[in-house]
Amino acid sequence: MGAEKTKYLDRTIPTISLANFESRIDEITSELVSAAENVGFFSVIDHGITPEEIDEIFAQSARFFSLPDDTKAKVPFSSANNAGWEKNAQVRPSTGAADRKESYQMQFGRNMEGKWLDDSALPGFKESALKFMWKAQGVSEKLMTCFARGLGFEDDYFIKAHDVKRPESQTVARLLHYFETPRENANGEIFHRAGAHTDWDLVTLLFQKEGQSGLEICPGREASTNFAHGDTWTKVAPCQDAIICNIGDLLMSWSDDRFKSTFHRVKAPSEPDDFYGERYSIAFFNQPCRDAKIQGPLKKYPMVTGEEFTRNAMRRNFEALEKKRLEKEKLEKEMEEARKLVEREGIRGASVESGGKVVAEVGA
Question: For the chain, where are the alpha helices, taking DSSP H only?
């Protein structure tokens, strides 16, 4: 059976200027709240990070990923700290398969102990990376101020809960390198650059390189199917001057579900016009301090700490992965039984169903 063809719809992704932030804060707040309530995705321009600064961090990212795997493996990913390098390791519940990429997670404080490469291996990298991370933090704090206002909190409410100068900080900057995907695919292998998912954080800032497309979103969290399978997607073209931002599960919970955390993915290229080459991006995840107290203004959900929220998100992800694994094992067992039936009875074919749909034909 062939893969279901993706349905697409052109949707407008709000573009919001942060120019003259102090004098326009009420206007900007209104625009951000509208985007958070209705789409969950938006782009910001006039954000204060220059194209040269963005080019520099992408150049540093390419330097890091061009190192031999043995060198990068000296700073292995640690789930306890959410920092370090990993390759072909992240499995999404939406696909049950590892994303075809490598990544390097960086933080500001003590979680990076032992996770920076020695300067002799990559001269200037740490200094350049931290400089960019502080720039991204500055943009994030402007967004946090507006979202706090929109929810009736004090202006610095979210900034204090995401204070990257504190040892309890969990904010992450993630360098991403997606591998080239072969155009010729004779055996029908399915590739996943990044399966459909939502982010766990407050708000994510995504930096992309022009010409390296692939990001797709499925707005309207409450209207989505499980991981947006079969739903209608919208392609988001990279633009050097804009930072693509999305609401995370944390802000959805903190807003009592007023703001929408939206499914998104990096599509596996399959159409002639898709981008098959290496793809680089940088995601800045605003994660709460471990001891931050999280509860919306309407108190829809019980209060939890930042550490508890992250742990609960990881648990849900693990449970979804386990469900996916069991479904896969069940399907494989049914297919094997169907093959045996075909061989024993000498019939032309048998169908294997899952979820009320025929997912495989055996011996046809």
Answer: 25-38, 51-65, 69-72, 125-150, 157-161, 249-254, 306-345
Higher-scoring residue by pLDDT: 186, 330: 330
Q: Would you kindly state where each structural domain of the chain is located, as residue ranges?
A: 7-302, 331-362
CA dist 133 → 53, 65, 170, 186 (Å):
11, 18, 13, 42
pLDDT, one tens digit per residue, over 145-186 is: 999 999 999 999 999 999 999 999 999 999 999 888 766 655
DSSP strand pairing (203-208 vs 101-106):
unpaired
Side-chain half-sphere CA neighbours of 85 within 13 A = 20
Q: Which amino acid is at 306?
A: G
Phi, psi values for residue 203, rounded to 5°: -150, 140
Mean pLDDT value across residues 327-344: 64
pLDDT tens, position by position, 44-84: 999 999 999 999 999 999 999 999 999 999 999 998 888 99
DSSP states along 284-328: EE-PPPTT-EE--TT--S--EEHHHHHHHHHHHHHHHHHHHHHHH
**Other beta carbons less than 10 A from residue 99's beta carbon:** 24
Q: What is the mean pLDDT of the chain?
A: 83
What are the φ and ψ backbone dihedral angles of 225, each rounded to 5 degrees? -80, -175
CA distance 174 to 172: 6
Q: Band of the pLDDT at 1, cuts 50, 70, 90?
A: very low
User: Which of 2.60.120.330, 2.40.400.10, 3.40.930.10, 3.90.226.10 would CATH assign to domain 7-302?
Assistant: 2.60.120.330
